[in-house]
Amino acid sequence: MSGHYEETTDLMVEASDLISGDRKLDYGDFLRNHQDIAKVWSVVLGTPISAHQVTLCMATVKIVRASQKKNYKRDNYVDAIAYISMTNALQKKENGDLWIRI
């Protein structure tokens, strides 16, 4: 496999490990965590916010940070992948796709 494919796969594996490993240990289940964040943001912003909107917004933070060419941080890419992955799972759950298990 070419190096750029390995790098891509490595980023996805690292993101998956964060979601199910260190971050899960630190912050608990991402569904509950982002539901709690959504409740607080809803109060602060004065409009209902969903858990998947929280993760989508967090992904955009990481994307903007990654766009700073002079300040490369691998963490921004790993976290963006993790947030997008969580957004997918949360939105499916919020839309009633019962097959998903979070």
Features:
5 helices, 0% strand, single chain, 75% helix, 102 residues, globular, mainly alpha
Largest sheet: none
Mean pLDDT: 88
Oligomer: single chain
Terminal Cα separation, in Å? 32 Å
Strand content: under 5%
Radius of gyration from CA coordinates: 15 Å
Low-pLDDT windows of residues:
none
Q: Total strand count, please?
A: 0
User: What is the H/E order?
Assistant: HHHHH
What is the SS-derived class? mainly alpha
Structure, explained:
The chain is mainly alpha-helical and 102 residues long. Helix content is 75%, strand content 0%. The protein has helices spanning 3-20, 22-27, 30-45, 51-66, 74-94. The longest helix has 21 residues, at 74-94.
What's the gist of this structure?
The chain has 102 residues and is mainly alpha-helical.
Please describe the topology of this protein.
Blueprint: H1 3-20, H2 22-27, H3 30-45, H4 51-66, H5 74-94
